Amino acid sequence: MTQSASQNLDRVLVLEMVRVTEAAAIAASTLVGRGDEKAADAAAVEAMRAALNELYMDGTVVIGEGERDEAPMLYIGEKVGSAPGKGPKIDIALDPLEGTTITAKAGPNALAVLAIAEEGCLLNAPDVYMDKIAVGPGYPAGVIDLEKSATENVRAVAAAKGVEPHEIIACVLDRPRHEKLIAELRGIGCGVMLIGDGDVAGVIATTDPDTTIDIYMGSGGAPEGVLACAALRCVGGQFQGRLLFRNDDERARAHRWGIQDLDKVYTLDELASGDCIFAATGVTDGSLLAGVKRKGRMMTTESVVMRASSGTVRWVKGEHRI
């Protein structure tokens, strides 16, 4: 990261990123438990877009709500910020509401999530599935390997941690496609924490000993993989991911976004590099953050913001007048 690149991100203040995720989380929170995923997502998208457009930057959405013909706002390639052609060029990865189903059902771990980096530092990942594996900081390089079995990876993590495999806890999305993975993990005595949605939070949970999660495994959205890597860049950890394609249309979509090697195993630094800034605000209560609460004429939020260049992690509690 050059000095000029670092200065560019300095202009987009770290706390401004929190204000963006706070706005999206507050908007989505008004629809928690209402059973309407689309309305909750739309509210978060509109609020996040408005907040981004107040910032002095020349921003480009590289991970967003979908392709232009699929998303009216925050689509991939959309320009945001108040200074197009003048402000610092910033790539933006975002998920205004990670966990739409969670929000509709008032479940745990729904987040508003945002990552920024210098132009070209975030992989423009297509909206397809990605096979993922991640651990937090403190392990020797190469402790995880996507080419190896779940059993081999758990044993490697256990050995590095100085414990037995049955003392390891893996986080896995609760999906039918993971039945064999879950059975293999439980077959070696590994604990499995199943989550209904929100695999960005699942990956980040590996960095926090209080969650008791040691490793994240399984497939989820590729864009969410890039967002999770931006967070891991800030606090340390390891990640590997490989794009998964269900049909020729998804392969063609990947080619359109510049992906040439469809079988490539990506490392953390290949998905998110340089001086990333990551921010998230809780929408509903979760293992990482408390959700939005209304207290009379005030709303309270809890957020986290991280920066790679300094290794700084800030926990931010906000009070907002209604």
Task: List the SSEs and their pairings.
Elements: H1 3-11, H2 14-29, H3 37-52, E1 58-63, E2 79-80, E3 89-98, H4 100-104, E4 111-118, E5 129-135, H5 150-161, E6 169-173, H6 179-187, E7 191-195, H7 199-204, E8 215-221, H8 222-235, E9 238-244, H9 248-256, E10 265-267, H10 268-271, E11 277-282, E12 293-295, E13 298-307, E14 312-321
Parallel strand pairs: 1-3, 6-7, 6-8
Antiparallel strand pairs: 1-2, 3-4, 4-11, 5-8, 5-9, 9-10, 11-13, 12-13, 13-14
Which tags fit this structure?
alpha+beta, eight-stranded mixed β-sheet, disordered N terminus, 322 residues, six-stranded mixed β-sheet, single chain, 14 strands, 10 helices, 31% helix
Quick structural summary:
With 322 residues, this protein is α+β, with helices and mostly antiparallel strands. Helix content is 31%, strand content 28%.
- Rg is 19 Å
Helix and strand content put the structural class at alpha+beta
| N-to-C span | 41 Å
β-strand number: 14
Can you give the helix content as a percent range? 25-40%
Number of helices: 10
What is the makeup of the main sheet? Answer: 8 strands, mixed
Average predicted confidence as pLDDT = 91
Topology order in helix (H) and strand (E) letters: HHHEEEHEEHEHEHEHEHEHEEEE
Strand proportion: 25-35%
Uncertain residue segments: 1-5
Q: Could you say which overall geometry the principal axes of the C-alpha atoms support?
A: globular
